[in-house]
Structures are given as structure tokens and as C-alpha cells.
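Minutes, structural biology subgroup

Action item carried over from last meeting: produce the C-alpha cell record for ABC transporter substrate-binding protein (Undibacterium rugosum). EB confirmed the sequence was re-checked against the source entry. Recorded below for completeness.
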Amino acid sequence: MKTLLKKCVAFSLLGASLISNSLQAQDNPIVIGHAIDLSGPNSSLGRDYVAGITTYFDSLNRSGGINGRRVKYLVRDDQGSPQQSVKAVNELLEKDKAEYLLGGVGAGVTDAVVNSPRFTQSNITLFAPLVGSAKNYGNRVLFWRPTPEQEMQYIFSYFDKLGIKQVGIALQNNNINHDMYQYVVSEVKRRNMVLSGVAKISDTPADMTREATALAKATPNIVITVADTVATGLFLKEFRKHAPRTFVAGMSTINLDTLAEIAGPTSLEWTVFSQVVPNPQGKKSVIQIDHSNMMKKFRDEDISSLTFEGFMVAKTLGKAIQMSKSGRDGLQTIASQRTPIDLGGVILTPAENSFHLSSYVDVALFRKGGGLLF
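Output recorded by EB:
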């Protein structure tokens, strides 16, 4: 009888301990903060990106979280404003005690956050901003996506194989685009191509018409845009009046929905965009299938390259946190190990002396009538 009583007491204590540990895990979540554009000029990019991230963390929490701790993913809308982004990040760090921070859309908000006093004082690495800038932030920013130079190299290689030699550039002339413009010019020379001309994108309609018309008359085989979404759309709208079947190529940070609104859907024909993830509709890898299934289960909305990128970014961060020994060094650990990271058929291969985890690049063409063809 005494033995039976001892066993009952032991089981009761064990059960109480398990319940206590479970409650403690719930009360001690891993707080991940994210300031990103959800209602501003790049809101469609931000919303898709967040949808993919949220979906992965929802599925992760459903299966027990990370090391017994659930993920608390907090998103703040910075409206694409650098000032709002800094304010949101300050709140996430001060009020919400975020342990990890995900980055927003564009170099402007990234610069503002990285240079803000509160972020500078923190020991946190900004992870996976959607930035098409060639700027290097050192170990304060860890990019998930490849460098913009890698994207541009792939675009050049793709059209080089087609024998295209006449290249035009549509340039939004500002400090952010200066380095990439110089890179494109040097790449044209290196590949023995010919620079047909440069159209400087202006907010003035008359200037934009003149620049686009002049570049069309120079008859390039392809025009590479070094510009943001709005500037690319304004150029494309004018350029297509004179060159409806000239290839125009842009990078993966171009907001295709906004581009179609500005330039018109028919202007998207003969346009090509670099992509930093495989076809989100594909079924060739485990993570493609998981992403599709989990989006249907938790979101019930359309999938895109950005939802897929967000899903993989969240999975990468989850792996980094799992590897963390002190609670906040997971990203530094995953960046410094320089070994392949398998996300389920998509392999990240961090390069030496690089703050970019992925080197995957592909291109997608717009079909007639809309939709990307990978």
C-alpha cells in the first residue's frame, strides 16, 4: 500500500512538473518583431511576405514551437516610411522586448533602422529585409536573399545566351541606385555588349516622354531598369508606346501589382524579372509542397513568390534560433558556420565573407494576359 501511495505521489509530482513546464513555455515565448510596409507603396510586397512568415510560425507553434517555446510574431505597419519604421522598431525593442527583428522593404527603411540609436545600442541583427541595394551593412544586417549583383548577373547571362548585344538602361538617378547603375554599365562593357542609351526617369511627364522616346529610337534589344517600382512603371508606360516588343528586365523587389496599375497590364508583356525563390506553384521540393499546403490550411489565400520567400525566411530563422546557445546569437551562428542549410529541397549555401544566406536566382517572364512563367 505504501509503495502504491509513493508511486501515485511520484506521478502526481511528475504531472505537476510537466504542466508547470508547459505553462512556463507559454509564458516565455520567443518574441520576433517585424516593422514592414502593410499599407504604403510596397504594401502588396509586405502583406505577402508577412503572410508567408505568419503561416510558417503558425504551423511551427501547432507542432510545439522551438525547444518547447512558442513563437510570438509581432508585426507593425511602417507604411514604407523610414521614420515610422524606426518608431515601430523602438516600440518592438522597448515595449515588446523583441529578441529577433525582421527587416522591412527597401534601402530607405533599412538605413533608418540600422542607424537609429536604439537599434545601434541593441545586440540584435536585422534579418532578411527586402532590399535591392548593393550596400553592405556588415554584421548588423543579415540578408536571406542573394545580392542584387547576383540577380543582375543572372539577367545578363540569360539574355547573353540569346545573343542579345544592344542594351539600354532606364535609370532612376539617386544615391541608392548609383552603385547598381555603375555595375550594369561595367557589366555591359565586360560582356562586350553595346550600351544603346540611358533614359533618366523623371517625375515630369514631358521629360519622361522625351527620355523614353529617345531610348526607344536607339533600338536596344533589352532595357534594364535600375529603379524602384513606381519609376519603372512610369518609364514602361511611355516606352511601350514606341517599343511594344522590346524586352524590359527588372529585379525581384519590383512590386508587380503596382507596376501593372501604373503601366497597364498589357505593358507587362515582354518583361522579365529576376526571382530569388523557385516557382511557388511547383511541387519539386518538400518545402514547395509544405508552403502550398500550409498556406491553404492557415491562410486560404493565393500563394506568390513573396509568400514563399517569407515562409523560407521564417523556417531559416527557426533553425537559427534552434542553434542558438545564448538566446540571441542564432543568426550570427547560422551566418558564420558556412555550411549548407537544407530547408526541404532548397539549399542555402552561405558564401565566405558574405552577409547573404541564399544564392538562388532564376528569372520569370510575364505571359500574355498576365501571370508569371518560370
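Discussion: Confidence is low (pLDDT under 50) at residues 4-25.
Next step: EB to file the record with the rest of the batch.
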